Amino acid sequence: MHPTIQTYFNAFNAGDVDGMVNCLDDAVAHHVNEGQVRIGKDAFRSFCQHMNECYRENLTDMVIFSNPDGSRAAAEYVVNGAYLKTDAGLPEARGQNYQLPAGSFFSLSNDKITRVVTYYNLADWTAQVS
Q1: Contact in structure between 104 and 12 (CB atoms under 8 Å)
Q2: Three-state SS at 125
Q3: Which of 30, 44, 77, 114 is most solvent-facing, going by the fewest CB within 10 Å?
Q4: Contacts of 30 (CB under 8 A, 6+ apart)
């Protein structure tokens, strides 16, 4: 387990965007599922603030892997969420609950996250909230 990644996910589950941002390199590349790459802490923070308006999520069944030198890590988990506010281009939000497997991949330098890539099955999510 990589301590920076554990801290990042602990902050996520606490709804602590600042705690997540503190784990990032200034020039972090954030690859979101089905979206554009966002560069930098400000873009990451903006994304998280938007997500917190539209969704309430808690991650469970977390397994974190890392390579021996700590420069790469991955995590597998279950997203347990509620769809709170309609997000542009997606089905209408009515407080629907959802649960789906997901994964994240990380690059790190000097114990800071330089790249975050997150994957989940958008079709599965859409079917659950439709």
Answers
A1: no
A2: helix
A3: 114
A4: 37, 38, 39, 43, 44, 47, 115, 116
Residue among 57, 29, 53 at smallest CA distance from 43: 29
Sign (positive or negative) of CA dihedral 27, 31, 32, 36: positive
Phi-psi map region of 82: left, alpha, beta (phi>0 left; psi -120 to 50 alpha)? beta
CB atoms within 10 A of CB 3: 12
Torsion of CA 85, 91, 125, 42, to 10 degrees: -50
pTM over 0.85: yes
Question: How far is it, in rounded angstroms, from Cα 95 to Cα 23?
Answer: 30
CB-based contact 112:24 (threshold 8 Å)? yes
pLDDT means over runs of 10, the chain (130 residues): 93 96 98 91 96 96 96 97 95 96 97 96 95
Residue 25's CB is within 10 A of a number of other CB atoms, namely 17
